[in-house]
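Write out this protein's structure.
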Amino acid sequence: MAKHLLSRAAHDRLRAEHEDLTTRGRIEVAQKIEVARAHGDLKENGDYHAAKDEQGHMEGRIRLIESILSDAEIVPPSPPGTVGLGSVVAIVYEGDDDDAAEHYLIGHVEERPAADHVSVMSPTSPLGAALMGATTGQTVSYQAPRGTLKVRVLSADAAI
C-alpha cells in the first residue's frame, strides 16, 4: 500500500474532520433518522431515506479518512523556489505569455489550496513528476499523449 503524503495542515484538518464526523455528525444523523421514523411508514418516507443516504455518505467519508490517516506520512515543506510536495507552483507552457500562467498545488487530493484558482496536481502525474525538484525559472519537459510539452516554472512557494 502506498503512503499518503500529506502536509501538516492537511493531516490536522483530516483528523479534525474525522473527530467531528464521528461525534457531532453521527449524533445529528441519528437524530434525523429518529425524527423521520416518527413520521410513519418507512417504505414511502422520503425524509427517512434521505437521512439514511446521508448516513451512508458520512460513514464512507469516515472510512476514507481513517484509511488515509492510518498510512499517512507528513512531509516537510520544500524550500522557497523549489517545487516539492505541498508547493504551489505557477507554470506557463512554452510559447505562452506569463499572464497565461496556471497554478497548481502539488500533493495529495486531500490537500486544499487556500486560493480558488489553484487546482491540486498529483506528484505522480506526468507533469507533476517532471516538476518535482524544479526551481523558479527552470524549464521542464514531460511526455503528453500527443507529444512532449515544455513548461517554465514561474514560482514555487510553500502552500502554507
